[in-house]
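Next comes the chain:
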Amino acid sequence: MDGTEITVRSVQTVGKNTIALELKSPPGFDAQPGQFVQVRGEVDGDEVTRHYTLSSPDTDETFEITVGIDPDGDLSPWLAELDSGETVEIAGPYGRSYYEGEPSVVVLAGGPGVGPAVGIAERAIADGGSAIVVYQDDEPAHEDRLRELETTGATVLITDDALRDEDVKDVLSTAEGQVFVYGFDDFIEDANEALQAAGHDPADTKSENFG
């Protein structure tokens, strides 16, 4: 699906310098948690595109993307100022590191990786499976949804420390299921080291590097 104009349903602050955009799903839009879309906007007369991963468990009627706001960024400040009823253009979905009905999921998320983490975990729980989320950030986003996941039986560990600390190792050493990793370069490297130290093979993970 390419170049489809869709309506903004809501823009909600979900953390420091972080928003969640709820967007109306276009006809035929079939995306899974962990896939991403290209978002296009016209900013000061220039067309700007960026990629954002879905943070909703499904795309029934609407779907969500989570956006970290860079004050000096080209597109994110513009997205943060959108109102309900305005439009953006999307293309996609894209990506191969997404939820495919696995009965048990283990998601390691760094920074904006919390978006796909909550979407995948919520979907797995809704499908009757189990979920573990390990989230590294010193200013966590989506805390309400993470707490709600805990009430539904998911294991959630939020840390502002290295992924090699003992709490993370304890969780990962007993974790079973499909492992997902979402974050920037340094986080991906740290996550792979933590997984290997806990007895997992990083080659078996579904991983998305944000750059």
